[in-house]
Amino acid sequence: MFLATSAANPLLRWSYFVEQWDRIAEAIFQHVQLTLLAVGFGFVISAALAYLGMRYRWTVTPITLFAAFLYTIPSVAFFGVLVSYLGLSLVTALVPLTAFTILILVTNILDGFASVPEPVREAADGMGLTPAQRLFTVEVPIAVPYIINGLRIATVTTVGLVTVAAIVGYGGLGRLILDGLRRTFWTPLTIGASLSILLALLFDLLFFALGAWLTPWARRKQTL
Amino acid sequence: MIAAAAAAPPTTWLAQVAVPRDITLVEWFTDPATWTGSNGIIASLGDTLLLVVAVILFSVLLSVPTAALLAHLRKAELASAWAVNIGRAIPTFAIAGLLVPISLRAGYGFEPWPIFIALTLLTVPPMYLSTYTAVKQVDPAAVNAARAMGFTEREVLLTVEVPLALTVIFTGIRVASVQVVATEPIRAFLGGDGLGRYVRDGIGQNNPTLVLGGAILIAILAGITAVTFVGIEWLAKPPGVRRLSGRADRTVAARKQMVGA
Amino acid sequence: MEQASIVVLIGPSGCGKTTTLRMINRLIEPTSGRIEIQGEDVTDLPATELRRGIGYVIQQVGLFPHRTIEANIATVPRTLGWDKARIRSRVEELVQVVGIDHEMLTRYPDELSGGQQQRVGVARALAADPPVLLMDEPFGAVDPIVRGRLQDELLELQARVHKTIVLVTHDLDEAIKIADKIVLLNVGGVVEQYASPDELLREPANAFVESFVGDDRSMRRLTLASVGELPYDQGPVVPIDTSPADARAILADKRSEWLGVTDGEAFLGWVDGTEVVDGVHLDDLHRFLPAAQVEPSSTLRNAMEVIMNSRTSVAVINDQGRFCGVVTLERIRAGLEGDLSALPEPAG
């Protein structure tokens, strides 16, 4: 029956788009908010873990394994379990979203600092830079490309996962998708799906540009 | 039958799993009815495995030979990087959702095309990238020695580059496969079944036991997949490389590969 | 160590030469003993403050990849809080002194060659004008030709800036070439000898030193002095218009088979002594010009090389076209008996 109603159920009905703009805008806002919160918290946690890993070398493996474990937990399972015990709340959505960013961020932060060549560190010490000066004026800038790369991947992945978080009520544009699927009403589906894809690509481009802007020394060398 | 099934909206078309709310987890798992029947765990597991295996096989066939060949020829590096990046950015759930009406319009129904295509899109970029990088980074001395000994380009690729790159290629396949298994459950929300159905129905019926049970099943499958592939990776190492692997695995590059970053 | 001198630490692996160097700026903390710079114990100051007053150059340079060359050089002055104008002019000055192209200042380290990077490293170390400069195998990572050039530039630099330089190397030839004094260390940090290069070669303190400097130490010593530092011999060389009889007398006196002729200024060539007969003017005799001649600035080593390759067993000294004399093996041998580093500067 609904197959036959494709004329009344187009992929995108523009009037809907205009009428429901408030709802759509809200969904976009929530999507961006969740993404930024998850990546933000994830970054703070990852920076702390990375610091531990650099200070106490032996912690790197357990930290990496733990983060990998978190990453491997299937998103649906993670969201599902939390909603059953915590109900529909922002935390229910945010905890898994944050957890999924940690592996990427920790790995990239650690790699970033590992990429600082030993002679550079030695030269910095030899010139009388204090440990803090060395960290902030030498090591961090060199680690930045890796950190930005990590943030880029984490953010883009999170945009995708936020759509799945719709199953626990906090999914931003994912709610439109789910809604459309449940009602077999295609317009919200198309809007939600296209906008989330666009959002992901936009973030990707943004971080790419940010990375290029922050690393003028890498730009000169035309390597891949 | 099919026409009637296609006529109704998805939520009643999909056979829901009805479970009393006050059942405990152990009771649920030990009840034989949970496992058997068309809504049972075994049937759902079968659905999931079928899709996952199909996606993995298809992705491997699509990405590994192409990546190996292009890496050998040292071509399309920039294009590859961009393609991988864009593929990686696209949200799986969104693309699957978008494909649903298209699939329906074309007469294929809710399954399997939207989720199959979406999962393939998820899997191909990391597999392609790790294969490309692996083949490209094979010790150039070994490759040049082979060429100098008169190997044809095809022989170089198949008998030198690929075997030496195999460990990393398998790591890429492993990481991608675990991702597929972990993402497959969204299928239940796209008009399909599989192991994700228990979480779906559990949320819908407000039944924590059902959700937890489903979550455990999904998680176990993901874990088994990971372990199985680690085993395959280990076996796939050429004996000489196996002995060296301890130190190599701890390098930055190896770590990145493990993460699929 | 004497101020404004270049002291080279050298020795086999495990002798602690790098460790010793790094104790001076406390990258490694000494566990016993004292290190003093201009009377002050290095442990009196906080380590970071100490290091800002000491230049440090390492083999792989360690230029900050994320900063331009200019910013790299300016690192310590910036840390010390110099104002921009002063930093700018100091950087310009240093660029001249170490020999880098001005336009390289805006480039990044990975755009420079190994030799250029090393020069920048030296500039960076000298930026705050420290009295002491530490160098750890600074020229080890470049090819021999560039290395030779950098060594020469270091000596020229030192002539201008007069720093107290402590340099670690494993290359004995490098040590001999640039050092004012050499510290030869043995495994475990034992000082086997502390002496000028010539003294080290001439009078090795013990068997270890002797084997370390090798069998060819006399040959090595020859690189330390130049032709101009030894007295010139006239040799069997006469003006072209000398009479055959007088010429034969000189040949007999010098016991030479060959007779050299000049026109009063330039050297014209060698004549076979047996062809010098009465009645034949020297100018009419067949003569040949030697393939190689030496200059006052040539090392005795060069002179030796020329002598070995010459039929006449002497080397002609040619000072911008003017004949000055000859170098004989005997003269070189006599020179080796003395202290080659104590020779007077060549005259003229």
Strand and helix layout:
The complex is a heterotrimer of chains A (224), B (261) and C (348).
Chain A: H1 14-19, H2 21-55, H3 60-72, H4 75-86, H5 90-114, H6 118-126, H7 131-164, H8 173-183, H9 186-214, H10 216-220
Helix pairs in contact in A: 2-5, 2-7, 2-8, 2-9, 3-5, 4-5, 5-7, 6-7, 7-9, 8-9
Chain B: H1 2-7, H2 10-13, H3 25-30, H4 32-35, H5 41-73, H6 77-89, H7 92-105, H8 113-136, H9 140-148, H10 153-183, H11 197-204, H12 208-236, H13 239-249, H14 252-259
Helix pairs in contact in B: 5-8, 5-10, 6-8, 7-8, 8-10, 9-10, 10-12, 10-14, 11-12
Chain C: E1 6-10, H1 17-24, E2 36-37, E3 40-41, H2 47-52, E4 54-58, H3 69-73, H4 75-80, H5 84-98, H6 114-126, E5 132-136, H7 144-161, E6 164-168, H8 172-178, E7 181-186, E8 190-195, H9 197-202, H10 207-213, H11 217-221, E9 237-239, H12 244-254, E10 258-262, E11 267-272, E12 287-288, H13 300-309, E13 314-319, E14 322-328, H14 329-337
Parallel strand pairs in C: 1-6, 1-7, 4-5, 5-6, 9-10
Antiparallel strand pairs in C: 2-3, 7-8, 10-11, 11-12, 13-14
Give a quick set of tags describing it.
heterotrimer, A: 224 residues, mainly alpha, 10 helices, 0% strand, disordered N terminus, B: 261 residues, disordered C terminus
Can you tell me about this structure?
The complex is a heterotrimer of chains A (224), B (261) and C (348). Chain A is an all-alpha fold and 224 residues long. Chain A is built from ten helices and no strands. In chain A, helix 2 (21-55) packs across helix 8. The radius of gyration of chain A is 21 Å and the shape is elongated. The relative contact order of chain A is 0.14. Chain B has helices at 2-7, 10-13, 25-30, 32-35, 41-73, 77-89, 92-105, 113-136, 140-148, 153-183, 197-204, 208-236, 239-249, 252-259. In chain B, helix 5 packs antiparallel against helix 10. Chain B is elongated. Mean pLDDT of chain B is 82; it is low at 1-13, 246-254 and 257-261. Chain C is of the alpha/beta class and 348 residues long. Helices cover 36% and strands 19% of the residues of chain C. In chain C, the strands form four sheets. A six-stranded mixed beta sheet of chain C has the order 4-5-6-1-7-8, with helices on both faces. Chains A and C meet through helix 6, helix 7 and helix 10 of A and helix 2, strand 4 and helix 4 of C.
Sheet bearing the most strands of chain C, described? Answer: 6 strands, mixed
Shape of chain C: elongated
Tell me how many strands of chain B there are: 0
Helical segment count of chain B: 14
List SSEs of chain B in N-to-C order.
Answer: HHHHHHHHHHHHHH
Q: How many helix segments of chain C?
A: 14
Going across the major beta sheet of chain C, what is the strand order?
4-5-6-1-7-8
Q: What do the pLDDT scores of chain B average to?
A: 82
Largest interface: A-B, 61 and 60 residues
**How much of the polypeptide of chain C forms β-strand, as a percent range?**
15-25%
Radius of gyration of chain B: 22 Å
Helix % of chain C is: 25-40%
Low-confidence runs of chain C (pLDDT<50, min 5 residues)? none
**N- to C-terminal distance of chain C:** 32 Å
Intertermini distance of chain B: 46 Å
